[in-house]
Write a structure and sequence with these properties.
alpha/beta, 12 helices
């Protein structure tokens, strides 16, 4: 039992250390101040499949950007839409320089979204490419913020994409998970071990994409077009940086249906098996430590009870609660900056659910077929 106790304590400390490192990396990224840069031509690429109800809102957000309009080009990859997405986009384009790329079929064995993005990338005429989704709302400083990072020498720029929603548990959890993902993503980039990006808010140079063979190299995976491509860029030695300007965030609505959330997360967790490199190893250690603490706490509690040590049986649960409360403290500044107001106890509860949910969804993802 002594060995299990020592292991339990080590896992608690390792989990909390990971959050301390995330907090350190997050604030390191926040301290980077970049000067204004002369505007360059940029292309915004949006893959859209039956997005009639969303496409107007994202086009309005692009039109409202604090960036010279004549420097902005937009390509919508209309991926097999049957609801008039393209017609609605054209009708509301206004003065935007908009191109619609119609896609009627996807080669067998390829991810539809990756195929659509790949065709749009090849159709772009600028080197700087920015990506978001049809259901997103970029802040007015989005293009300018990401462009400043490119102008400072970056070839790839990652940035937060918070989720917003109502009071339901699914929406609250989704918003928290998006904040958590952003914190780990930005911190890893700041520490020089980037491993993921949000497809709702990132960009890269077309010249880098061409040099690295781009999305076709990771096309067989249904999800993960952003993470796997970023890791491909990192392996090539690309200069990857983060943008943490609040006016450059891209916001979207959190899913309200738990079944949609489960499908989305299973898709993401399944593709994590293809992660590689130092960042993937570090992430694996962190995730393993966080997940292993829970069953180990249960085992120790049972063992103490079997040995009649009823007072000691409470210690593993106390340790678990301390870890969750301690880790939530590191997340509070991140959630507030990203627009999610929550008490520390609430964040601790959401973190507890996240670890259990991630473990179950991650395991299940390898036994169910991939689907959107």
């Amino acid at each position: 039992m002594t060995t299990l106790i020592v292991l339990f304590v080590c896992l608690l400390l390792l989990s909390s250390l990971s959050f301390a490192l995330v907090s350190n990396g997050w604030f390191r990224a926040l301290r980077v101040m970049l000067p204004s840069a002369e505007a360059e031509d940029v292309t915004i690429i949006i893959a859209a499949h039956n997005e009639r109800s969303n496409i107007v809102r994202v086009l309005d957000a692009i039109r409202a950007q604090d960036y010279p309009a004549d420097r902005i080009r937009v390509i919508i990859a209309d991926d097999r839409s049957s609801d008039g997405t393209a017609e609605i986009a054209r009708a509301h384009a206004g003065d935007l320089r908009l191109d619609i790329l119609r896609i009627d079929s996807t080669p067998e064995g390829l991810s539809p979204k990756k195929h659509a993005l790949h065709l749009a990338i090849h159709a772009a005429h600028t080197d700087i490419l920015l990506f978001t989704d049809a259901d997103c709302r970029p802040e007015p400083g989005w293009i300018a913020g990401l462009h400043r990072v490119f102008a400072a020498g970056a070839e790839v720029v990652v940035a937060p994409a918070p989720l917003e929603g109502g009071k339901g548990f699914t929406e609250r959890y989704s918003a928290y998970e998006a904040c958590r993902t952003a914190a780990f993503m930005i911190a890893a980039t700041a520490h020089g071990v980037p491993y993921m990006a949000s497809g709702r808010n990132w960009g890269y140079r077309k010249s880098l994409y061409t040099r690295c063979d781009g999305l076709p190299a990771v096309g067989r995976w249904l999800g993960g077009d952003d993470d796997l491509l970023l890791q491909q860029f990192a392996a090539s030695g690309a200069r990857i940086a983060a943008c943490t300007e609040a006016n450059a965030f891209v916001r979207s609505d959190a899913p309200g249906e738990f079944s949609s959330l489960v499908r989305q997360k299973m898709r993401h967790y399944r593709v994590s098996g293809a992660y590689s490199g130092k960042a993937a190893l570090l992430l694996g250690i962190i995730v393993a430590s966080q997940v292993s603490v829970f069953p180990l706490a249960i085992i120790l509690t049972i063992l103490f009870l079997l040995h009649g040590q009823f007072m000691a049986a409470a210690l593993p649960q106390i340790g678990l609660l301390w870890m969750l409360h301690y880790n939530a403290g590191f997340m509070m500044p991140v959630t507030r900056l990203l627009g999610m107001e929550a008490r520390r106890t609430s964040l601790a509860g959401l973190e507890c659910f996240h670890v259990v949910f991630s473990a179950l969804a991650g395991i299940a993802s390898f036994f169910r077929p991939q689907r959107w």
